[in-house]
Amino acid sequence: MSIIKHTLKDRKIISRLFVKGKKVKISPLLFIFLNNENESVLFSVSKKNIPKAVDRNKIKRQMRAIFLNNKRLLSRTKTPKAMAFVYYENKVVAYPKLLTSMTTILKEIN
């Protein structure tokens, strides 16, 4: 299963997700999810917090890789979800910290 096929792009779903979605905050990530008709995911890193595009792209690439490697933690849920991972730290954190926070979030929502 490719992440590109399940990327969240619909503006209506994104706005509904940020307004009505349930939120879980584990440093350095904010995770927002909402039940949806099909599973889709969004990865966001603020330009305000991380000014260099190289760093933003690296963080998003790492989050996508962690999500794909740990997708099995999410497969236990019965209903598909629209999800957003929002990176809110002001500096780039090490990969192991990002890995532990994402896996903790994925375990929590089951």
List the helices and strands and how they pair.
Layout: H1 11-20, E1 22-26, E2 29-35, E3 40-45, H2 53-69, H3 71-74, E4 81-87, H4 95-108
Parallel strand pairs: 3-4
Antiparallel strand pairs: 1-2, 2-4
Helix pairs in contact: 2-4
- Rounded to an integer in angstroms, the radius of gyration calculated over CA atoms is 13 Å
Could you list the spans in which at least 5 consecutive residues all have pLDDT below 50?
none
Q: What percent of residues are in strands?
A: 15-25%
- Helix and strand content put the structural class at alpha+beta
Order of SSEs, N→C? HEEEHHEH
Apparent shape: globular
Could you explain the architecture of this structure?
This protein is of the alpha+beta class and 110 residues long. It has a single domain (11-108), classed as Ribosomal Protein S5, domain 2 (2-Layer Sandwich). It is built from 4 helices and 4 strands, in the order H-E-E-E-H-H-E-H. The protein has helices at 11-20, 53-69, 71-74, 95-108; strands spanning 22-26, 29-35, 40-45, 81-87. Strands 1-2-4-3 form a 4-stranded mixed β-sheet. Helix 2 (53-69) crosses helix 4 (95-108). The model has no long low-confidence stretch (mean pLDDT 91).
